[in-house]
């Protein structure tokens, strides 16, 4: 009886663990919040400093997952795209985001900020949604997601270039805004042509 109870408890723990989503972005952010909590005194000034550190690390963890998505999705679409527009855009994403991802990783390491090592849940869903499509539908879904993604990126990086408390993180965000804006302009021009394909 005791043995079956232990087995039953073990199974319940495993099931509960399996049911909990492990969003890598949230996990990285929780790690960073714990670091910020330990690094700041529990005074009003300390709490303010902790809030600034949380904003900076949250920006970098989301940017890391987004950058991984751009590269991974770009590689898959570049290999399978039907339209020259989707293929060209995907190749540009791999090239530009590989470079900015390396800069982001170096910056995070320098600031002792933990980054996700896999895609966050939201980005994993985008990858799945696009790669499940085939042919021109995949190209159309890809450019639709890239339009939405780059609209959000331009806003988030612009905000971070103003709001980040760390000057290096602020500079990283500011440096990337023009590149992200260029990507947004590219996808905005390409999308109607690809959407018109049957």
How does this model look, in words?
By secondary structure, the protein is mostly helical. The longest helix is centred in the N-terminal third of the chain and has 37 residues, at 44-80. The relative contact order is 0.13. The protein is built from 7 helices and no strands. The model is unreliable at 1-20 (pLDDT under 50). Helix content is 84%, strand content 0%.
SSE run = HHHHHHH
State the shape: elongated
Q: Which class best fits the helix and strand makeup? A: mainly alpha
**Poorly predicted ranges:** 1-20
The largest pleated sheet is described as: none
What is the averaged pLDDT score?
A: 84
Labels describing this entry:
198 residues; 0% strand; mainly alpha; 7 helices
Task: Please provide a brief summary of the model.
With about 200 residues, the protein is mostly helical.
Task: Set down the secondary structure blueprint.
Blueprint: H1 2-19, H2 24-39, H3 44-80, H4 84-110, H5 121-131, H6 135-163, H7 167-195
